[in-house]
Design a protein that fits this description.
Layout lengths: L2 E7 L2 H16 L3 E8 L11 H6 L6 E3 L8 H22 L3 E5 L3 H13 L3 E4 L10 H11 L2 E4 L2 H9 L7 E3 L3 H8 L5 H8 L6 E6 L8 H16 L4 E6 L7 H12 L5 E4 L3 H9 L4 E4 L3 H4 L7 E5 L12 E4 L3 H11 L2 H6 L12 H11 L17 H7 L1
Parallel strand pairs: 1-2, 1-4, 2-3, 4-5, 5-6, 6-7, 8-9, 8-11, 9-10, 11-12, 12-13
Helix pairs in contact: 1-7, 1-15, 3-4, 4-5, 9-10
Length: 396
């Protein structure tokens, strides 16, 4: 009897990480893929990116509408409530054996909550990480405690999940899915990419993504973004390819600032969604990534390019030597750009190693999803790292 594996996706970036996992599950003789799209995928404002899922040849089994046309704290709370209600109905219809979720967003928190109440085992990807500048930090660790299988991207993250009380035998260091996507994707030729984007690359090129720093408030995020745009506007020989922020608290305000500012500049291009293929192809053609997206830490190092990581949003994540962290001020960003283009730093990029794995995560995850015993998996004993080795053996 095949296991029904229900994978939930709510954003363009998350789908880019999950696509190859979904396809491998779908091809597995012992597994039956169920795919649920939600959140930004269903919003025209964010590009209706569920079409990208369909264009990839994957069948969407259910859609959970939950995203309100507002990004205040009240709206995010209400969206989460709508999500829990929607996922409750979906999981009741699909009756999956395992729900697979990735990351830390409120859409994923809603799915995890509904699966917990329904008594469905949860497999969580990319747990144990830290993002101290966003409320995603609390959601991620909450999802870890609701989950039963854990697939983490690096050894420090495995240790942190165990520190949260999860049994080591259920925590697997498989590496990050972003590296798998890079290794499996045939990238676009530069000329084809330019035609698709409707632009010509310049002497220098940067890929820009700036998300709200949700624990610092929308006013602070907007102020930080304006500092970045001030610097980008000074770069007369640089093309800035900008992707809009996610549907976090304050994200719409930042999107409005970006679109309005880009209209006054001849070297800036703004996109709702590049999609995985164009995004990875851009990474292979730009000089660096600038902003506060996790992609600059987890994917950019594999392309041997630099990342300028601005502000506190990603504080706590593992960083390759290609990552330049700076304050969210124009002065600090200018200094970071000077370092990015310095001959010494550029020479050092050839030796950069991505700390997020070797591209073998998908196979490892699928094998565990197919074989891990599900009898009594819902029952968890808190794994107390303060106990003796003998006591711990009794509890595992």
């Amino acid at each position: 009897m095949t296991r029904k594996i229900c994978v939930v996706t709510g954003t363009r970036a998350e789908f880019g990480l999950l696509q190859w996992l979904m396809e491998t599950i779908d091809e597995h003789t012992e597994l039956d893929l169920q795919l649920v799209a939600t959140g930004m995928h269903l919003s025209p404002e964010f590009g209706s990116t569920f079409h990208e899922i369909e264009e990839a040849g994957l069948k969407i089994d259910e859609k959970v509408e939950m995203l309100l046309s507002s990004d205040t704290g009240v709206a995010i709370s209400k969206s989460t409530g709508l999500g829990i209600s929607g996922f409750a109905d979906v999981f009741d219809r699909l009756k999956p054996d395992i729900v697979v979720i990735l990351g830390d967003r409120f859409e994923i928190f809603a799915a995890a909550s509904a699966a917990t109440f329904a008594g469905i085992p949860i497999a969580h990807l990319h747990g144990g990480e830290t993002t101290e500048g966003a409320f995603d930090e609390a959601l991620r660790h909450s999802i870890t405690k609701m989950s039963h299988l854990h697939f983490v991207a690096a050894e420090p993250y495995r240790q942190r999940v165990v520190q949260l009380g999860e049994a080591p035998g259920r925590v697997f260091n498989v590496g990050g899915l972003g590296v798998d996507a890079i290794m499996r994707t045939k990238l676009m030729a530069r000329s084809d990419l330019e035609a698709s984007l409707g632009l010509k690359f310049k002497k220098r090129n940067l890929l820009v993504t700036f998300h709200p720093v949700t624990l610092e408030g929308s006013d602070k995020s907007a102020e930080q973004l304006r500092e970045l745009l001030t610097v980008l506007s000074e770069l007369k020989e640089t093309a800035s390819i900008i992707t809009l922020p996610n549907a976090d608290s304050g994200g719409r305000e930042l999107a409005g600032i970006l679109k309005a500012f880009a209209k006054t500049q001849k070297n800036m291009w703004v996109f709702k969604s590049l999609g995985q293929l164009r995004y990875l192809s851009c990474l292979s053609n730009v000089d660096g990534v600038i902003g506060n997206s996790s992609s600059g830490l987890t994917e950019a190092p594999s392309f041997k390019i630099g990342t300028i990581n601005i502000g506190e949003r990603q504080t706590g994540r593992l960083k390759a030597d290609s990552v330049i962290s700076c304050a969210a001020s124009a002065k600090s960003i200018r200094s970071a750009l000077a370092k990015l283009y310095s001959p010494a730093f550029q020479a050092s990029l050839t030796n950069v190693r991505n700390p997020y794995g070797d591209g073998q995560a998908v196979e490892a995850i699928v094998e565990i999803l197919a074989k891990f015993p599900l009898n009594n998996i819902l029952k968890k004993t808190f794994y107390d790292i303060s106990l003796s080795d003998e006591d711990l053996r009794d509890k595992t």
